[in-house]
Design a protein that fits this description.
Length: about 130
């Protein structure tokens, strides 16, 4: 005995499996089925090949899109940084101009007060001179 009894493979069973069947119609049917299965296998290989090709194209496209996205993101970050620094600079300029404006308003008010005082003095001098 080649196999252990627990395997369930007796010599008689193995002989029966190995014994060729002589029915030509069965052999023809088997050949036909084998040819059909080989055709199915060929078609499956073509499908797998096409799927792998499509997967590669998809992967390449995804990588290209990711690289474009990274590039656009980097550009957006640079523009954002540039705009932020420009905005800060404009804010500083505006603050400086606001301070200058307040100083000019104060100067104008002082000048208007001086003009008013000088007018009053002029009027007073005129009235004293005419008397």
């Amino acid at each position: 005995k080649i196999f252990s009894p627990e395997a369930g493979l007796s010599n008689d069973y193995l002989r029966k499996l190995l014994k060729p069947k002589h029915s030509s119609s069965k052999q023809w049917e088997l050949r036909k089925r084998v040819e059909q299965k080989e055709e199915e296998l060929k078609n499956l290989r073509l499908v797998i090949h096409e799927l792998l090709k499509a997967k590669q194209e998809f992967t390449s496209g995804a990588i290209e899109i990711e690289e474009q996205f990274k590039s656009m993101h980097d550009q957006a970050m640079k523009v954002n940084q540039s705009l932020s620094s420009h905005l800060q600079e404009e804010g500083r300029k505006m603050s400086s101009l606001t301070q200058e404006n307040h100083e000019l308003i104060r100067e104008r008010d002082l000048c208007l007060s001086k003009i008013k005082m000088l007018r009053n003095d002029l009027e007073k001098t005129k009235s004293e001179f005419t008397q």
